[in-house]
Design goal:
CATH superfamily of the domain at 2-120: NAD(P)-binding Rossmann-like Domain
CATH architecture of the domain at 2-120: 3-Layer(aba) Sandwich
Structural class: alpha/beta
Number of strands: 22
CATH class of the domain at 2-120: Alpha Beta
Low-confidence stretches: 222-226, 450-455
Strand content: 25-35%
CATH topology of the domain at 2-120: Rossmann fold
Shape: globular
Strand order of the largest sheet: 3-2-1-4-5-6
Oligomer: single chain
Largest sheet: 6 strands, parallel
């Protein structure tokens, strides 16, 4: 399968990292030759220097014989034109990153007129995750997600006191029909394993038979406290702040945006209804206190600086704000995040890459998927084509710590697997993997023959 990525910025590089271990021929196009040289030294990809929106370059990379073209440069216009030209020249599937709010009211026109299969907006994707957390509280509808005979349930650990303080090994002995596939703790989603302990304050993700999941739901969700985000303060009036303020305002929340750029404040004031726009330095704690930080139900940091986002989120946490969410793009802050105690930390690059990869995997391989707090992805995989996970006991697959095979659907039977379970041709396999490591799934789904495995 041939894939062309137009643009070697953060998102383009994230896609390369996610796809590199898959069964793909990857071509990366950018106008920065030095950047391409550095990438070529790290990854086995073909790099081409040039303007992505020129027909000659697209012909040079044989776009007519390309299965997927992802145009993800920093320019919306370049992305739209490059994707459109690629489609006209014969590319099977094209996608373009489009971020400008002015384009959002005419997405269908752009998609149809330019013959683009997918338009991707990272700011809208992360906005949806933030909104889902603030307004719906559960990342899953009613706390439950189902696929066939299997169900996933999400709830606070305190709602089932018997499991708090015990390990996952203890949990399996108490609830043998379920498996813990994820734990949300201090703003970070963890993929747990046997010796890991369930703690007070954790949000637990369990998988089991659908009927058992609905029975458990009556116990753990009946007393769930839903705190509506009536008053929300957003730090940063960029694209994410704009989209989130617009959506929360439509919902009925009282929204304040703090933005340092005066010209941007004028833009926000003209475009947003029922939103208070404050021109000021979001790092000025006294300003935030004067603007009633202590009375906010939610606080969202989405400036362009990860350090500011984390420190301000920590400040809001110390002021007792109920829900604190931070937008952070760098993976290097993982360990710091887990110690800060921020409710949710989201990475727009991971969320966007996950969204794009669903198109590559296709419905014939991944039957369905759902994000867990924007940090882990649960996928229902159709085990066919002699992919590498077939015919081998799970314990011998040597799964990394950030992935877990949670359940297997075999006909009408639901199997909660152990290390000796063997995946068979035709099974529906439920896999959970951290979004930051989503490229591992390409290795897991690669045909066994490509890995030198003979069966």
């Amino acid at each position: 399968m041939k894939i062309a990525i137009l643009g070697a910025g953060k998102l383009g590089l994230r896609l390369v990292e996610a796809l590199i271990d898959g069964d793909y021929e990857i071509t990366l196009v950018d106008s920065d030759d030095e950047k391409l040289n550095n990438i070529a030294q790290q990854y086995d990809v073909m790099t081409v220097n040039g303007d992505a929106k020129t027909v000659d370059l697209l012909k040079e990379i044989d776009v007519a014989d390309t299965d997927f073209v992802f145009s993800v440069t920093t320019s919306d216009d370049t992305n739209i034109l490059a994707a459109s030209f690629a489609k006209i020249l014969g590319a099977k599937f094209v996608a373009a990153r489009v971020r400008d709010p002015e384009h959002m009211s005419q997405l269908n026109f752009i998609r149809n007129h330019y013959k683009i299969d997918m338009l991707v907006n990272p700011d809208l994707l992360i906005t949806s995750e933030i909104y889902r957390y603030l307004i719906e509280k559960y990342t899953l509808s009613n706390g439950i997600y189902t696929f066939g005979s299997i169900g996933l349930i999400e709830f606070e650990a305190e709602k089932f006191p018997e499991i708090v303080g015990g390990t996952l090994i203890d949990f399996r002995s108490k609830m043998p029909g379920f498996i813990v596939v994820g734990i949300s703790r201090n703003g970070k989603v963890l993929i747990p394993h046997g010796p890991d302990e369930i703690k007070a304050g954790d949000v637990i993700y369990l998988i089991g038979q659908k009927e058992d999941v609905f029975k458990l739901s009556k116990k753990v969700h009946s007393r769930f406290h839903h705190q509506n985000a009536r008053k929300v303060m957003i730090i940063g009036g960029g694209k994410t702040g704009y989209y989130l303020a617009e959506r929360l305002s439509e919902y009925g929340s009282q929204v304040k945006i703090v933005e340092n750029d005066r010209e941007r404040c004028h833009y926000l004031s003209n475009k947003l209804r029922n939103v208070m726009v404050i021109n000021g330095d979001g790092t000025d704690i006294q300003l935030l206190v004067d603007e009633d930080l202590d009375s906010m139900d939610a606080f969202v940091t989405c400036t362009g600086y990860d350090e500011e986002n984390l420190l301000l989120a920590l400040t809001a946490n110390n002021h007792g704000v109920e829900d604190v969410i931070s937008k952070v793009s760098h993976e290097s802050y993982k360990e710091l995040i887990s110690r800060l105690g921020i409710d949710v930390v989201l990475n727009p690059l991971d969320i966007t890459a996950s969204h794009i990869l669903r198109a590559v995997r296709g419905s014939h391989r991944v039957l369905s998927s759902v994000l867990l707090q924007g940090q882990a992805e649960l996928m229902e995989i159709h085990a066919t084509d002699r992919i590498s996970m077939l015919g081998t006991p799970i314990k011998d697959l040597k799964l990394p710590d950030y992935a877990i095979i949670a359940a297997i659907g075999r006909g009408t039977e639901t199997i909660i697997p152990d290390g000796n379970t063997v995946i068979q041709d035709g099974d529906r396999v439920i896999v959970v993997c951290l979004v930051s490591e989503i490229g591992y799934m390409e290795t897991l789904m690669k045909p066994a023959s490509r890995l030198g495995i003979n069966r």
